[in-house]
Amino acid sequence: SLVGDHEIPKLCPEPPISCTDILPILDSIIDMGEASSLKLLIFPKKWREERNNTESDFHAFLTRYNELLCSRADTCLKCSCNLSDNADNPMLHITASDERYGAQKYNCYSCMKQYCFECEDDGANFMTHRCGKCERLYCLHCKTLTWCKCCDDMMCVDCMDFRVCSSCEVDTCRDCVSERSCENNCGVDKIWCESCVDDEDAMRRCGICGVDYCNSCCDSYVHTVKFCVVCNTSICGQCVVKKCEKERQCIGCYRLSFPVLLEEKERLRAKARNELNELKSRIDYLDARLEEIQKQKGR
Known about the structure:
single chain, alpha+beta
């Protein structure tokens, strides 16, 4: 393989490696038959993407390599079934329509142990899974893979950072974390998956200004996005006040604006009180300084 462990096989720029140069070397190895100890080949992504050409030298080599693997009559380490007991069950993904074309089946890419795709452990987990990022097959004993419910893919935890969605509380891969965030900045560690955001289970968006608030904040604060059942509008506190000042028509929006105005009134009152206290403190400080200066002059 041209990439290391847990690296995405799609290289940019594409490697200049040539089938014409490499395949004769590989052919010389598989021509050894049972004398060859070859168990696993990982082909460049560039080669495997050209799967529609079944007349290519690469496809012909895959056929020969598959025949070698099938001739060894390997069995599943857990259930002892034959992994390739007929021509309809090759040891490689060799069908041109298969997105995994050119990838080897059953072998754990780490320990080389072989399991069929039906066997499970005591916890009802399949013995092997293919990572959706590095595209390698690993058994449960070698790598930990996590399922992302958004993209419905399994990935090595070493390949992809996973976060827990603050709404559904399910592991979410980095690629499926929504870019939308709560206007309240309610938590730097909070993230929401694309599924929850798309289904409106995590976020509410103001239909006027487009600001987002998470559902938790919407249930707790009056200035966040609320739904007016009269005009069927999702609207934030700032926009509902502006709307009522201009239109003065929707009674539902009026009801939503009252708590916002009361909160703003209390905020301004608290701000004025703090400013007054700061002013008083400043006056007391200046009085004390003036008294100190007068005493010094009296000496």
